[in-house]
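Protein modeling request. Please complete all fields; requests missing the sequence field cannot be processed.
Requester role: graduate student
Desired output: 3D structure, token encoding
Chains: 1
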Amino acid sequence: MDTKYNPNGFEKEIYKKWEDCGYFKADVNKNKKPFTIVMPPPNVTGQLHLGHALNNTIQDIIIRYKRMAGFEALWIPGTDHASISTEAKVVGKIRSEGHTKKELGRDKFLEEAWAWTEQYGGRIKKQLRTIGVSCDWDYDSFTMDENLTRAVKRVFKKMYDDGLIYQGNRIVNWDVEAETAISDAEVYHVEKEGNLWYIKYFFENSDEYLTIATTRPETMFGDLAVAVNPEDTRFKDKIGKNVILPIVGRKIPIIEDSYVDMEYGTGCVKITPSHDPNDFEVGARHKLGQCVVIDTKGHITDEYGKYSGLDRYEARKQIIEQLEDEGYLEKIETLTHAVGYSERTNVVIEPLISKQWFVKMDELAKMAADVYQDGELQLIPDSLGKTYMNWLNNIRDWTISRQLWWGHRLPVFYTDDGEIIVSEDDPDEEGKLNGVHVTQEEDTLDTWFSSALWPFATLGWPNENKKLDYFFPTDILVTGYDIVFFWVIRMVFASLYTTDKIPFNHVLFTGLIRDPQGRKMSKSLGNGVDPIDVVNEYGADALRFTLITGNSPGNDMRYDEKRIIASRNFANKLWNATRFVLMNIEKGDNLDFSTVENLALEDKWILKRLNNVIEEVTKNLEKYEIGLAASRIENFIWEEYCDWYIEFAKLRLYGEDEKAKADVKKVLLYVLNKMIALLHPFMPFITEEIYSALPDKKDMLIVEDWPTFNEEFEFISEEATVNSAIEAITAIRNQRATLNVGAKTKQDLIILAENEEYKDLLENLKGQFKNLANSNEVDIYLKDEFDKDKENLVNLVFNEFSVLMSLDDLMDYEQERKRLNEEIKRLECEIKRASGKLNNENFVNKAPEAVVNEEREKLANYEDLLEKTKLSLEEIKDK
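Delivered output (879 residues):
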């Protein structure tokens, strides 16, 4: 092994070897139980970010563990065509070349889109390889692959034939930037400060009016009625009368509808059926019709004079000015309200009446709810079940059509007579289906329609095959909690509807990764981190370990470079420990560890601790407690193996007893072998590199067996004794540090054992106390038999024994008195300074409260230390 840990020197080479040897591949194997994960497909034009790195690291840990545990472990990778975002990028490219989408036409545009996909589509997969993902690349899928397309057509037709898909005019969320409808799940809401404008609507031929409060005056041109609550006595005599729509001059009726909240605004609501989902329902109940006044680009439509063609917000500004000039504006109030934004383009969505294709959700939502409530589908953490059920209980029909060219075109065809045909087949060269000339629907499907089929379509559905039967349903989905609506629920109902099976048994939700201040990472804040930059500087293992250490399902975490450095330091610690072990192994050493006879006490301790960590980490991984498992294995390697067992081992490694030396080498190597196997799923590169340097290795660590609990290593009393010895040695070191004892000064120790059994065990640790507690002589007595004077001895008490230390051996009392007196003078000066500050009214009144409190805390600490220091001086003043 190299003298220094340098991940850049071996990570790429190791990954290539894993892939070349086919270690990621899985196939139908009747002798093994299958375990399957499908990768949430990143956008084909995307780039790896920390969220991808976290999500895929967790999946990789799970799949590597299951592979080593004897499962036929399949991890299916792939990418999503991302219709809106990809089309936007291609449109931008075309525009930069001086052309428009319409100029190119659909076929040429799609050629551009495929070219873009081929150019940028492989980027994220290369980056995923860099962090070590061990997915089966033979299964690599794309949501517009031929098989996925066939699956999409099959499900669409089945839903249509079953009456679940229909076409209709309804209010949709309209993205004015992308010029397409989007579903409710693709809208996010932001609390914004806005205004409530109070507008006078006069009765015809009268100076009397009703006051209407609205947050969207630009839609008033589309008002078709004013509604009041039938229980509202204020307006009983107004029902059936007409008011005149300001600016436009159109007569509109006053109607009654229980939808109106009597407490909101003035109790009168303008009804704009074409631009508000609730108004749409009111309009349908009262047969008001439709009046579209904002077009697909977010501009006012024709017929409205100077306002026609204006952007909706510019129109709002000018409409308010005109209302004020003409005496229609009564007052303006400020308010905070939720504003919907498109998740894809980050523009404010426009509720718009539009002819679209929809999926009826009632029956499908019930399927998805039932499997969760029955416990068949388990969410981790279960607290997200409330979110899951809340969305299903309040679901609206899903808008699945998109006014885009990139994506799965709806398999809907219109005959020349206007008849609708839904077919999985494409028309022939003459444009005919079943001998009838047809024209295909222009719209494409929502990206999530194809993604909903991902778990089974990637395994070859709708074609029946052995892999689908063997690997489906999958076992776990790992995804961010932010797409529980977009994707998770849709996969659940799509799979139940299509295959009668849930797509996965568990869903493990990850949180968001934030910066050290807890802020969401974004381009605008400039706080984003490129995972590949981290890998290049610190190695993939350091990145992976940082992302999962301390991570718990569903909770956000903070990314800090200090944690990356700590993970790199952990890798370095393991690297140096391995080098130490290998440097002490000579050619010809018998390293076969096949018996537990004649082992030293500390050998039995480390083997029992190994048993514990195997059991705990395995349980953690079975429950998908990835962060807990990582912390436990790190603690074992760093503290128990490196900091203690290697130090214990040095006594025999550097001794003259060849038999003892041979035994400790075997145990050192055996435990090292097992612990890198435990660590492998978390830090695959360094563990594989270490494994390659070990004597008597087999093939590669990735295909080694997962370590298992060994009953022969259940050395319970030995473990307890060594644990107490470690506690004692630590306490002795701390006591020496407290007394400022120099490293060269040694002391005698007296150890008092509770009984003969512990006395015998402690006899075996005499050498360790001498070596690690910096001792001269170590005498061990039974507690009941020790009757010497204990005066001037420090007594350290532990479970099975106590340790007596002589202060006379440790301390130069004259020197210590001098030091304590100097410390007293220093503390008195600090107290005087702090008291002076706090007695200064200018400081107390003008300094920030946090600064004043910090000074008060310092004063209290100084006073406490002074008291303790004086007591220490009093104790030794006559010695």
